[in-house]
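worker-03 picked up job from queue 'complexes'. Input manifest follows; four sequence lines, order preserved.
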Amino acid sequence: MQHADLTHFENCAIRHRGLCSAASPEALAELNRIAHPHHYATGQTIISEDVPVDFIANVVSGIVKLTKTMPDGRQQIVGLLFPFDFVGQAFAGSTSFSAEAASEVELVRLNRKAFEAVVDRNPDLKQQLLVSTLNELDAAREWMLLLGSKSAEEKVASFLMLLVRRSINMSCGQEAQPVNPVFELPVNRADIAGYLGVSAETVSRQISHLKADGIIKLIDIRHYTVPDLNRLAGLAGQEPPIWA
Amino acid sequence: MQHADLTHFENCAIRHRGLCSAASPEALAELNRIAHPHHYATGQTIISEDVPVDFIANVVSGIVKLTKTMPDGRQQIVGLLFPFDFVGQAFAGSTSFSAEAASEVELVRLNRKAFEAVVDRNPDLKQQLLVSTLNELDAAREWMLLLGSKSAEEKVASFLMLLVRRSINMSCGQEAQPVNPVFELPVNRADIAGYLGVSAETVSRQISHLKADGIIKLIDIRHYTVPDLNRLAGLAGQEPPIWA
DNA sequence: CGACATGTTGAACCTCATCAACCGACGTGG
DNA sequence: CCACGTCGGTTGATGAGGTTCAACATGTCG
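worker-03 finished. Artifact:
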């Protein structure tokens, strides 16, 4: 089971994401041996703020949200994890955020100490861990720009751009670029709102607005097409992306 | 000159910050040899967004702001660097943010390749690089909570708490904890505003408000005392801190 | 079918941005 | 030495964008 999941890494361009991109076959096999699948129901807590955990994990399917909570209960989503993303922090003390299943979630859990030991024996893997942490840091700062400087419309458009970009990357470049970009809304309005630092009603209104303007078109309840990606990128306050 | 600066690391509890905490004396000496002091005037650009740089650096004195800019010119400060902090990202491609001197700044610059080579030869240093990147990531997420969920008053109070915490840490614990916490406002209102994602006027108003309420008391133009730290922490939307 | 969650839409309110006037400190040049 | 312009900071008035509260629609599951 977990073997099938992990070897999947090798078949997909996704390998350039996450930790496994630099793993030697041997290291990969080693990680494989200490991996255990785990299931979480929607809303279930995976990691609790400031409570040490003895594992790290890889998302196999579903969406995991990372949250920070204020004493009075207000909550900010500080990260969304998609399949193949990494959950938890190796070599850190206790995590300063919670991780919660934003949908039905399948994880592959690895014992932390064991994982760290493998990493210590594989410099390339450690290097990759550093690089992917730097990438997370970049993403966090990009989100700081969004949270601190963008309007509600720009925030929603930016979030949709993120989904489009993900969807295109996930296609692994094996086929021609899709002429009509498509994305899936993987979480509910409340979670989108929590990620963007706005209210759920505002998200709803902005999405309605984008629909009315023909920037996005509904396919089914969770899927949309984007007829003109540059228009969406413009609304997101970004330069039109180059899809190399 | 730079020798005096770097050895200073060894004399101060600050060693637990930044990269040098895990550096062996030999590695430190090695870094020392490739370090060169550099001066920047207020407002001067140190690193430009998306332009590769061939150095990383340590802040010796002054404040460096990390900024991200939108195509239309709006700017968000995504990090403030204080003395002993690290500038730039080793092992990353081009940086996705700019670094600018927010005051007169003294840096010690190190050639990037040379630095990376030293790190590659010192696993402990690389480990420390990873850990301090994880800490930066935590700080960035803490700031996402602030930007996305806090009111203007909470934002300003949080920023002042940050300064107080820094000021206490900087005292290196060698003396008894100061009975009256003191902090210095190291940057102008516009930069505080850019960091907090509010307007400069709002920052000014909130600080005036805190002064009027006696939460903070002016010493001189740039220094304040905090008679009751718990009150400030409360306004910041934080649990009262434990000063272990 | 009813109960409950999720999403949409409307209306009132409120926080904060914006614009503008003003103040004090500082540096420059007459 | 003082007048002046500039810059950073403060304070006030006004308005827009977004939150909040509430009603309603839609979909799902027992």
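worker-03 released lock.
Residues 151-152, 198-199, 201-202, 205, 221 of chain A lie near DNA strand D (CB under 10 Å from a C1').
Chain A has two domains: 8-136, 150-235.
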